[in-house]
Every structure is written in C-alpha cells, then in structure tokens.
Design brief:
Layout: H1 2-12, H2 14-32, H3 35-38, H4 57-70, H5 83-101, H6 107-139
Helix pairs in contact: 1-2, 1-5, 2-4, 2-5, 4-6, 5-6
Length: 140
C-alpha cells in the first residue's frame, strides 16, 4: 500500500508531491515511536491476544495528533489555490508511513494513530491558512 501511494504521488507530482514530502517527515517519526508509548499497559513479554494487555486507542490519537500538529512547522508556503492539494499530499505522505507502524497495533490503536495524524495535519493547514489570511488583511 505504501509503495502504491508513493508511486501515485510521484506520478502526480507538483503540489501533491511537495505536500507528501513534508508528510514524510512525520511519517518517519511514527516509525521511530516505540510501542511502549502506544501501549503503556503492555509489557514486552505478554502476548497481545492473551487478555493481560489492554489497548489504549486514546494514547494513539494523542501521539498521532502531536506528530500531525508538528507538521505546522513544515507546512510549505504555497499559493492559496494549491493549499488543499498540498494538504492532501501531506495526509497521504504521513498516512502511508504510519500504516507501516500500525501493523503491530490493534485496529482501534491503528485507527487512533492515523486519525490523530490526519486531524493534526488538517489543523496545521487550517492554522497556516488562517495566519496567511490575517497577514494579507494587515497588508491591505
């Protein structure tokens, strides 16, 4: 799936590719995220299906949102008519790599991590657009 997403992004190029490359940074960060952060109640020697380990999707949402919001620092300056395409590229970039991390998670945790990442990327792009609009009003 990750390979297909990146093949599509490279094929489309331009603004989608520019956003995806920014999303790549947060996606790589999710790969470095240890499972002990996403599953603090599970010890490494306990099997997930044994019932001795509880899942905590809320922590995955929080971790995903934190990484997604960190993309606010990486949102590229693009013309307003290309902002949605660039934001879509960021979502594709971050989600394609986060999906690799989700292979070791249960469904609720994986959905929480990817949902948090997407929400963070969307919030970062909305904030960036809002700041740009404020600057434009101040100038004119």
């Amino acid at each position: 799936m990750t390979l297909l997403v990146w093949a599509f992004v490279e094929w489309r190029g331009t603004w989608l590719l520019r956003g995806a490359r920014c999303g790549l940074v947060a996606g790589l960060a999710t790969l470095a995220l240890p499972l002990s952060v996403l599953r603090p109640s599970c010890s490494a020697d306990v099997a997930i299906g044994s019932g001795a380990c509880c899942t905590m999707p809320g922590l995955c949402v929080a971790a995903g949102a934190l990484f997604g919001l960190s993309l606010a620092l990486l949102v590229p300056r693009v013309p307003s008519e290309h902002r949605a395409t660039t934001a879509t590229g960021m979502v594709l970039g971050v989600s394609s790599l986060a999906a690799l991390r989700c292979g070791a998670l249960m469904f609720g945790e994986a959905a929480g991590l990817i949902g948090g990442l997407v929400a963070g990327v969307v919030a970062a792009n909305i904030a960036h657009a809002w700041v740009d609009r404020g600057r434009a009003r101040a100038r004119g």
